[in-house]
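Here is one chain, start to finish.
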Amino acid sequence: MKRSLAAAAVLVVVLFAAARILTQGAQPARTTVTLNQGWTPAVATQFHYMTQGTRLMPAAWLRALRLPDGTPIMSPSNLHRLGFQDVHARPTSNNPYGWPIGVTVDTIGGVQVAGLTCAACHTGQFTYKGTTFRVEGGSTNADVGRFNTQLRDAILAVEKNRTLRARFDKDAVAYGYPKARLQRDFNREAANADLWLLYTAGVGGTSTVPGPGRIDAITGIMNRVFAYDLHDAHNAIRGIAPTSFPPLWDIWRLDWVQYNASARVPMARNVGESLGVGVVTNVVNDKGKLNPEPLRWESSERVYNLYWMEEALSHLKPPVWPASLMGRVDPVQAARGRKLFAQNCARCHGVAKIQGTTPTEWAVRAIPYQKIGTDPGEALVFAGSRFDASVLGWGKSVSGGYGASKFTGEILAEAYKKAGITTPAQVAKYNGWGRTSTATSPCAYKARPLVGIWATPPFLHNGSVPSIFDLLSDTRPSHPILGNPEYDPVKLGTVQKNTPDTMTLDTTKLGNSNAGHWFTNDKTRPGRIGPALTNAQKYDIIAYLKVATYADYPTTTVKQGYPLPCDRNFDWANGKMPDLRLNAK
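Its structure:
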């Protein structure tokens, strides 16, 4: 996409008719406001529905599958409960079935299939006093893990029940699936249904349930690569490290991405992400035997589409605080907050421009998990888990970080060849701004600049803190509520009120800790950043974060990026890495 496509910012207001009825009952009319972020409506729509080459299942099957009460899984009522956006979307050329943002259609293996786009997880939405606010590149409130569980359960129910199978077969054929292929293809899918779900990571009684707005992405990618794609159920590990979906504006500027600062090249990061949500690979055959090259590394990756999306994101701006709808910010209070932010937060969260980089990169600090004190799950699972990759000739005990990076590199190299991207200059361009491929496994979490962060609650990498006010405090809710879309503009967070579709988070479980990043007078508390702040100081910082722009943001220039820490001792509190395997040999 040429940069000119993302022209002047627009404010789009769409009034939904009050007559729209869900099976849950009449929903109140709402105005949806798309915040001023520099994208045209056409660019936003393309981002919402552009395929990455991922496959959930054939599109006809997705249309035919039903919940236990007979409601279609893709019904507006169910999608609304799951937190998806635009559940009443009208069919268009790039969304032929009127599915919600993030669910798309592609053709893979000669069949029309449904898949997830980047927007499924990275388009935010919240409500305030009857108005719904769309945040492009923000954090979804959707329960993607529960959606995938519904799909698995529906497939297994159809497999076991003749009446359900007859209805499914009839509907799937009516929706366009080839009748001659249906029985064979469905039986194969049902046989792999449990293993297929593993790449969403939030499964099994011993896993930590992600819930609304979270997913265990790192574990999902590793399970997809080492368990599902290698047809080796013994490699599957339980998910104990769910994370909130991070915002996407300015990520192209950061020298390291992912919460644990494990990736540098934009395209490699995107290929890893798309593998985690269902890109089709051909590493082994149906019997688990290694396929010959180049078939082994062929996939359904759409590298031209991934490049378009990365270019589009380079024009995405942080959302601007909608003062006319959510309240004017006192400039004197914001000025006090800026000073406090510079004193207490800017060392880690300021902008650090790296000299001599084109376009200018921003160095991000990766803080060791012991120092920041937050839940160590994601960082340690990525660095400390081991997988059997002997079928690939890589050994019986390959680290998740090394193995996933190597696997991604092979898939990407073959995708480039298939797309005709072969010269060093072309590879450098599509990798992203000429960056060289580097991956690492630091036992740390990165700190990013916080312009626009007000629009992305809840906070910390695992979404365990409901508001900025709580994050700046020395005590926090022990059982925060996830999934309430109503926004709290005073504390900058989500309203803590249960609804039928919310989840109460138990912060004592693995992966859910809300500890760390403390402002406290207790100098012995792990993860202490600085002294306790008064409520007035917290609200001053909140006022600044509402209106912060890069024109007034703490900014420095550095000669090079910051070193990445890595603790090679992967011990947990109990003295060793827990055995996360679901099916130990």
